[in-house]
Design brief:
Aspartate Aminotransferase, domain 1, three-stranded antiparallel sheet, 11% strand
Amino acid sequence: MRLITEKGREGRGLSILPPCDVEMVRPEEKDCRKLPLDMPAVSETEISRHYSALARRTHGVNDGFYPLGSCTMKYNPKIDEEAAALPGFAQVHPLQPAETVQGCMEVLYLAEKYLCEITGMSAMTFQPAAGAHGEFTGLLLIKAWHHSRGDEKRTKIIVPDSAHGTNPASAAMAGFTVVNVPSAPDGSVDLDALKAAVGEDTAGLMLTNPNTVGMFDENILEITRIVHETGGLNYYDGANLNAIMGIARPGDMGFDVVHLNLHKTFATPHGGGGPGSGPVGCTEVLAPFLPGARAVQKEDGSYGWTGGEQTIGSVKAFYGNFLVVVKALTYILTLGREGIVEASRNAVLNANYLRVKIKDAYPMAYEGLCMHEFVVSLQQWKDKYGVSALDVAKALLDHGIHPPTMYFPLIVHEALMFEPTETETRETLDEAADVLLDIARLAQTDPGALHACPNTTPIGRPDEVAAARHPVVKG
């Protein structure tokens, strides 16, 4: 497929932009570019066909089943988009006087109020632009709190070996030394290893629960107690709250800081580079260190701004990706208290339904009930049939199903991680299970056929190692 800049001919064009309704001010000659822009000269027909062709080559939740584990690729209600497109939200400027954006400030105030209730936190900032940005911000809060007390010897962050890869990266960026602790055979945190790792230099622990293998750690209260008793703080990676939203709160588990991915759990679209939103909530003792201004309600009912005296400083301009917050608040208000709980229960139900449907054919990495996602290990298949997790993922493409997350978490060999989400129907899950069972039979009877998949997609099976090591990023 040719690039849009490779199409068209000189003299062609289209008129899709409205005429300029303000005086045009051109830059001085010294500030103008010396070479003309390489703009495509295409007709409206050509550009329409170009983007339609691109759309046919993509796959999203509007196209088919998308069980991307740990990513929560759920359907995003269109009412969220409609709310965010309202002119009063979409056409504001962050430097407007507070009295002219009272509705926007109420959005930030209510979103903070409801998300703090859901997480068990006391205060929240919406500045962070995504999950890893939220991790980094939360770790800066932990560092600031320790330093405010003159306790600068706490330089280590404990991270389980099943954690998201961004956890150790964020800790390192925040200036901490990362201490890795192994998982127990059931996928939970090894308590003995944790006890051996903590000490007077422990700044905190980064953990997600349910963990990355989709299991709820039954020792969570003991885990957070161990860290607290050594003087450390507990950070909750809330990248995916889909299994416990409205049912269990990180604050009640003993966590002091939490980040959320609004572009996952709270049904705001993500992928393709954003925009995302990774708000960070914290307990009352950490609230003074939060970045940026927060909306507060004054005695007369109007809204104003407040900021902590000991703030770590802004981590992003203004108030974060505001329209993503609008979508998340719309989602929360649409579902209500009962709907939030139902969404989580259905996410767990769907994951376990699909798990049970395929467990006799696919070796599970961990036995027993899962939460929002589950992990299979195809190491046995690779050893016996020569069929890898990659082969299965490619075969799913031929059936219009987006592959699950591959080769993650790293503690599971030949891993496939499935997360159906609560927005999929039973019929969709039955169809997906039938496809997976057919692939399992093919792995035993004709494994060579799987090595050639996919056969029906615009691009077959490229040399992914070569693509990763020698990428061609320009046409």
